[in-house]
Amino acid sequence: MDAVTLHYDVSGNDFTCAGEASRKIKKTLKTLGFSPEIIRNVAIAVYEAEINMVVHANGGTIDASVTPEQIDVVLKDTGPGIPNIELAMQEGWSTAPENVRQLGFGAGMGLPNIKKYSDALRVESEVGKGTTIYITVINK
Amino acid sequence: MKISEIVKILDADVITGADSLDRDVRTVCGSDLMSDVLAFVKEQAVLLTGLVNAQVIRTAEMMDMQCIVFVRGKKPNLDMIELANDADIVLLGTQFEMFTACGRLYAGGMKGRSGR
Questions:
Q1: pLDDT for the residue numbered A40
Q2: Number of folded domains in chain A?
Q3: Hey, where are the domains in chain B?
């Protein structure tokens, strides 16, 4: 089977719509017949990353490549970048503003949760240029 | 426990999903912090929350949760109800506060993430 590729543009203006791309990816994986556990792992990891993208980087793009063996998702933004990735990976570390915390996010669990639910996570970031997150979930 | 039992225990209103009250649910997560909810993976779970925004529904959808209970008389808006219908999630509303709602469900036999 050729890889199924998906592309989504994520708006940074509307927190209400944040998660729409993750939702569509989840539905596609369901249609393709992946197990509920694999689908959930991808959905949660991508959703956290999508929320981050909306909250911190004014949106961006999400590209997914799906094969029977694995699901690869790349989230790319042109936001402010992450000055210290090691710090950002720590549970509880957050730079989210108060309004985001009031919406139930910004507890510093985003990147740790992405790591927890994925088989591989790579974060590339340059301050002032943006961040690209590579998430892989293996179809076990 | 069936969702219909939760309706009784919490004296809850069924906001949407009246046709799905015979579904079995096994665990409960009570939180206003969606990032914590996303760290909580259990099959057939119920979310109790006092937070009311679209991300509550999306979070539950990503987690394959069956039912959301809004505590303290909080009401979801129409967009949230539509999202829940689309995701096939039952929405309930109770006047009980979080602590009391959790206590009543625990006393009724529901368990948390650890199964205790």
A1: 94
A2: 1
A3: 3-107
What CA–CA distance (Å, rounded) separates A110 from A93? 9
- Token pair, residue A83, equals 């000055």
Q: What is the pLDDT of residues B79-110, one digit of tens each?
A: 999 999 999 999 999 999 999 999 999 999 99
Cβ separation of A51 and B55 shorter than 8 Å? yes
Q: Which residue has the tokens 């985003």?
A: A110
Backbone angles phi, psi at B10, to 5 degrees: -100, 5
Which of A27, A53, A105 has the most B C-beta neighbours within 10 Å, making it the best mutation to test the interface with B? A105
Q: Give the nearest partner residue to B62 out of A47, A103, A109, using CB atoms.
A: A47
Q: ipTM above 0.90?
A: no
> Between B38, B53, B56, which is nearest A48 by CB?
B38
A75: confidence class by pLDDT, cuts 50, 70, 90 = very high
CA distances from A104 to A54, A57, A59, A124, B81 (A): 14, 18, 19, 26, 18
Identify any residues that bridge with A5 across adjacent strands, giving them in sequence order.
A65
Residues of B in contact with A36 (CB under 8 A): 64
Superfamily the domain B3-107 falls into: HprK N-terminal domain-like (3.40.1390.20)
Tallying the residues shown for chain A, one arrives at: 140
CB within 8 Å: B35 and A109: yes
Joined together, the tokens standing for residue A98 give: 């108060």
Q: Rounded to an integer, what distance in angstroms lies between the CA atom of residue A128 and that of residue A104?
A: 27
List strand residue ranges (DSSP E) for chain A, in order. Answer: 4-11, 59-66, 70-77, 120-126, 130-138
Q: Does A23 contact B at CB distance below 8 Å?
A: yes
Range of the domain at A125: 4-138
